[in-house]
């Protein structure tokens, strides 16, 4: 797929609030090399922020439920804890994707700009 088409599709994903679909498209744009436009950088930032924010909100909700369950019957505590850990692992993967070698190159390029 051509770069322009990937960026267009990423923008379309953003409008549809399909941020998990948006990230791989933009990562491919970064991997192709070349300077990212301001619009492309904004799309990439938005995609990662939204993907991360969604998981963070989920983590907060599950963590709160876990605390309430711990105070109560503890009947479902192991299940809740397992799900919280699953979300934590997703957050960790997102963080590693942000700081992958392609992303580091982009950050270095940004630092060189006046």
From TrEMBL:
It comes from the Eukaryota. InterPro entries: 14-3-3, 14-3-3_dom_sf, 14-3-3_domain. Residues 3-112 form the 14-3-3 domain. Belongs to the 14-3-3 family. This is 14-3-3 domain-containing protein. It comes from Fusarium solani. The lineage of its organism: Eukaryota, Fungi, Dikarya, Ascomycota, Pezizomycotina.
């Amino acid at each position: 797929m051509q770069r322009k088409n990937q960026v267009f599709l990423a923008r379309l994903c953003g409008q549809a609030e399909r941020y998990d679909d948006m990230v791989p498209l933009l990562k491919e744009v970064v991997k192709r090399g070349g300077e990212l436009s301001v619009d492309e950088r904004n799309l990439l930032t938005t995609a990662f922020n939204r993907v991360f924010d969604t998981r963070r909100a989920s983590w907060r909700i599950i963590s709160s439920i876990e605390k309430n369950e711990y105070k109560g019957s503890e009947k479902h505590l192991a299940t809740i804890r397992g799900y919280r850990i699953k979300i934590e692992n997703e957050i960790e993967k997102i963080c590693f994707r942000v700081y992958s070698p392609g992303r580091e190159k982009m950050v270095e390029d940004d630092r060189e700009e006046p």
